[in-house]
Amino acid sequence: MASISGIYSRCMPELPEVETIVRDLNKVVLGRKIEDVWCDWRKSIKRPSGFSVFSRAVEGKQIERVWRRAKNIIFELSGGKILLIHQKMTGHLLYGAWSMKHKAWMPKEKGPLEEPANRFIHLIFWLDNGKQLALSDLRKFAKVELWDKKEFLSSTEFKSWGPEPLEKSFTFEKFKKILPARGKIKQILMNPQIIAGIGNIYADEILWEAKVHPLCLVNQFSGYQLKRIYLSIKKVLTKAIKLGGTSISDFRKLSGEKGLFGETRKAYRREKEKCHRCKSVIKRIKIGGRGTCFCPVCQRI
DNA sequence: CGGGGCTCCTGTGCGC
DNA sequence: TGCGCACAGGAGCCCC
């Protein structure tokens, strides 16, 4: 439960982290009714426009189901509604009861709650068991959307997402089929319209596992090399979920203001460290504006 | 159609 | 010791 209990946070949620959060949410919020909503950064709520419309539509609804698609957390609410939350870079869903008393704006009737609070919380759902579900988001990139379920399932947004790499239907044949004619492999792995759920961290991990250089062009791979990439996708993501995402982006206690950014950066600071396979020094380059770490010796192909 | 660049944000870390 | 600026980054969007 640590992944969503109030005082814990994780960095850069990708498929394994979101999957872990969704599994934990399923243990605590199913059947809970949303009694109240509060938000102090209304830009996060992309849909519908207008916070009062959003809050009126959400309040009184029961959480019937929680699932994941790509890096999105999907809450199915009573009345055929879908509440979608994408945590983007620094968003964390928190579950618990904690004090917001340092925030002067917090209505008194909502308290009293327990410490610790988190000054990056910008959205709170009060549940009918006295707990809160909150979205903490330092960089304010996270997005929240409310849909009618039917509309959501037939939307271009929903249909644009690439296949789920851990589903059984994601076979090697399917992988080969969805690959574009050209492009750098790192950017392809990170493109949510091609494959769902892989971000910067796991793209680097997968390519290291596959011993593939991130700048390789997709049309230059042999079948054997493609197979290695495919198997590495399954292996790395499966292992990460098994470890609750902790193997790469680890849990860290969130104690007030310090530590959050350091935690975020830690996963991206593998350069200058030794490669676990060949002891060479890990190199860092930029691909498509994204920091990329790889071993220049054993990731050759 | 594809690829590159911009945008949103703010804590951090550097240069001077 | 302090000030200011560049930087990171998911994914949608725009433009050529």
Nutshell version of this structure?
The chain has helices at residues 15-28, 51-58, 149-153, 156-160, 172-178, 185-189, 200-210, 223-242, 260-266; strands at residues 8-9, 34-39, 45-47, 63-69, 72-77, 81-86, 91-96, 121-127, 132-137, 143-148, 252-253, 283-287, 290-294.
Structure write-up:
With 301 residues, the chain is α+β, with helices and mostly antiparallel strands. The chain is built from 9 helices and 13 strands. The chain has a 5-stranded mixed β-sheet with strand order 3-10-6-5-4. A 4-stranded antiparallel β-sheet has the order 2-8-9-7, with helices on one face. Strands 1-11 form a two-stranded antiparallel sheet. α7 crosses α8 (223-242). The longest helix is centred in the last third of the chain and has 20 residues, at 223-242. The chain is elongated. The N and C termini lie far apart (41 Å). The model is unreliable at 1-10, 101-115 and 247-268 (pLDDT under 50). The structure holds a DNA duplex (16 and 16 nucleotides).
